[in-house]
Amino acid sequence: MKFNEIIENGKQKLKSLGIVESTSVIQDGQNVHPSLPGLGWSGNGETYRNTRRMLDNYFIKHRMIADHFTPNTVVTLFEKRIKTPILAAPMSGIKTNLRGQINETEFMKSVLTGCEIAGSIGSCGDSYDTSDGYLASDIMRDISGIAVIKPRSLEEIEIRIAMLAQTNVVAIGIDLDGVTGLMLEEGKVSKKNAADLRHLRTLFQGPMFLKGILSVEDALTAYELGFNGISVSAHGSRSIDRAPAPVYMLPEIAKAVKGKMTILADGGIRDGFDAFVYLALGADAVMVGRTVLYGAVAAGTEGVSTVINKLTADLSRAMLVANCHDVASINDSFIQKYE
Ligand SMILES: Cc1cc2nc3c(=O)[nH]c(=O)nc-3n(C[C@H](O)[C@H](O)[C@H](O)COP(=O)(O)O)c2cc1C
Questions:
Q1: How confident is the model at residue 128 (pLDDT cuts 50, 70, 90)?
Q2: Whether the Cβ atoms of residue 309 and residue 114 lie closer than 8 Å to each other
Q3: What is the reported pLDDT for 130?
């Protein structure tokens, strides 16, 4: 299956179960709205729409008269050399969000393997609705990837870090904004202060990062606490309404910490041209959520690798047109906003 067919097929399969991402549709005479659990957003979807609006307002500057070259998309991320700065975002709660459309273990394996085939890195979230134990550490014994742990109790995070340390994990993240999710009402997640995070940072020798960072203050604190990276993310607009769009906050955060730590960013990335804008605004690499998910739902491992390959090909075209030879040289001089 080609990219467009994969996305269409994935969306269609989920729509038939009443799961849509952004626009309400009528399916079998029933109104189907974007919702949570599901693939939708929290609240009224302000963050989701603002993210898209901001991305759509940028264009990539064209420099067509120059020597021909093959853009180099290779990057080194968390000490690993990879073919593309486009990674799969952590996604969990698959059983609930996708109403059993795909088995959670199969989903995570498809994401990690599909990314590996495409020369990228996949991520695993921290599922709360599984009776199978801690899936990420089980899976990462065989396949490498990034693991993102929910802001559970310190003891539970400690156990997960210890389990992951025995695997092929590339980096461990903690999604601090996971505190806004359904697990809050169940008392399973809580905010973490600087002392908590300083302690957690000592538990793993490899790279660690904090996900859900949307302010310069938090980015600087993450750096001071010894984290190797941050993820500028609003959890796919699934945390709270009126969260800032990550793409809006990225430039000021990058100004404060670029070069000191790895900057990941995500939200609303649907093609490699969106990825180029994020890289131009200061991200070292981007994470893609729902678009990768459609790939896994439509065609498993092959669907995921097709998605990452297609987005990387887009990125390469954007670099060619902008006359930008490698990822490190992408900056905001290559993009412009419509007035
Ligand atoms: C179904 C689903 C489950 C998610 N689960 C997690 C999770 O467990 N941990 C996490 O840090 N982020 C989670 N996210 C957020 C993604 O990691 C990422 O931030 C977001 O999807 C990026 O936006 P995009 O979907 O527009 O690409 C989830 C997103 C979706 C769509």
A1: low
A2: no
A3: 56
How many domains is the chain partitioned into structurally? Answer: 1
In this prediction, residue 294 carries a pLDDT of 98
Which residues, 6+ apart, have CB-to-CB distance to 279 below 8 Å?
A: 85, 285, 286, 315, 327, 330
Is residue 318 in a domain? Answer: yes
In this structure, which amino acid lies at residue 314? D
| Inside any domain, residue 49 | no
Q: What is the pLDDT of residue 168?
A: 96
Backbone φ and ψ for 235, nearest 5 degrees, come out as 60, 35
Site to probe by mutation for ligand 1, drawn from 235, 278, 287 as the one with most ligand atoms within 8 Å of Cβ, is 235
Q: Atom 4 in ligand 1: which residue has the minimum CA distance?
A: 91
Domain that holds residue 316: 75-324
Q: CATH number, domain at 103?
A: 3.20.20.70
Residue 173 has pLDDT above 80, yes or no: yes
Q: Does residue 58 form part of some domain?
A: no
Q: pLDDT for 195-244, tens place per residue?
A: 999 999 999 999 999 999 999 999 999 999 999 999 999 999 999 999 99
- Which protein residue's CA is at the shortest distance from atom 6 of ligand 1? 91
Residue 21 in domain = no
**Interacting residues of 282 by C-beta distance below 8 A, sequence separation 6+:** 250, 251, 253, 254, 255, 258, 263, 265, 332
Report pLDDT for 28: 81
Helix (H) or strand (E) holding 116: helix 104-117
Q: Give ligand 1 pocket residues (Cβ under 6 A).
A: 39, 89-93, 97, 125-126, 148, 175, 178, 211, 233, 235-236, 238, 266-269, 287-290
| Contact yes or no for 223/209 (Cβ under 8 A) | no
Cβ atoms < 10 Å from Cβ of 1: 15
